[in-house]
């Protein structure tokens, strides 16, 4: 194979994929699909992190991007214990306490005693928090509709189904 200077090694507009030699010199077969998946997920996650930062600032200019996910979780699930939130997000109690104090200081969440356990607290969105998160989430959905307007609705549904399947598989 030769390269024509444009990265086209096959002459048909496609990059040639390396095959594994017996010495294990390169990817082959199913490995290519997993390399492609890893590459696309890396781009997707980088964009998602940047998007979370933007959305967090839309909720409140002083909001850390990591806290946006907490607000969305509370919006979707209602009252939660801090320990439940920490487990869901995947952070320790100290980190969760710091983030919750910051959100409370911004007026986006409130705490109340857990009626089932007087030692524990339940965290919930304030009306201000619910309003701000709702506006940002609605704007985000509108961007998805706009950016994916050329997609068939079944493709959007299939992407959502596959992402759900991926997320469920990663929980195990």
Protein model, in words:
Helix content is 61%, strand content 10%. It has 172 residues and is mostly helical. The chain starts with 28 loop residues before the first helix and ends with a helix. It has a 3-stranded antiparallel beta sheet.
Quick summary:
Helices cover 61% and strands 10% of the residues. It is mainly α and 172 residues long.
As a percent range, the share of strand residues is 5-15%
Q: Strand-and-helix sequence, N→C?
A: HHEHHEEHH
Helix-and-strand structural type: mainly alpha
Q: What is the general shape?
A: globular
Radius of gyration: 22 Å
How many helix segments? 6
| Overall strand count | 3
Which residues sit in consecutive blocks of at least 5 with pLDDT less than 50? 1-23
Helix content: 55-70%
Biggest beta sheet summary: 3 strands, antiparallel
Measured distance between first and last alpha carbons: 43 Å
Query: Strand order across the biggest sheet?
Result: 1-3-2
User: For the residues shown, what is the average pLDDT?
Assistant: 85
């Amino acid at each position: 194979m030769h390269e024509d200077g444009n990265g086209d090694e096959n002459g048909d507009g496609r990059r040639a994929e390396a095959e594994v030699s017996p010495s294990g010199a390169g990817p082959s077969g199913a490995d290519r699909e997993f390399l492609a998946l890893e590459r696309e997920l890396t781009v997707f996650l980088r964009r998602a992190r940047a998007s979370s930062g933007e959305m967090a600032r839309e909720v409140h200019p002083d909001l850390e991007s990591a806290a946006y996910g907490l607000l969305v979780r509370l919006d979707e699930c209602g009252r939660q214990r801090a320990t439940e939130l920490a487990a869901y997000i995947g952070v320790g109690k100290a980190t969760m306490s710091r983030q919750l104090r910051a959100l409370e200081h911004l007026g986006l969440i409130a705490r109340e005693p857990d009626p089932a356990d007087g030692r524990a607290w339940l965290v919930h969105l304030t009306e201000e928090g619910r309003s701000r998160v709702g506006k940002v989430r609605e704007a985000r959905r509108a961007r998805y509709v706009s950016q994916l307007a050329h997609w068939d609705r079944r493709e959007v549904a299939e992407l959502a189904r596959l992402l759900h399947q991926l997320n469920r598989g990663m929980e195990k």
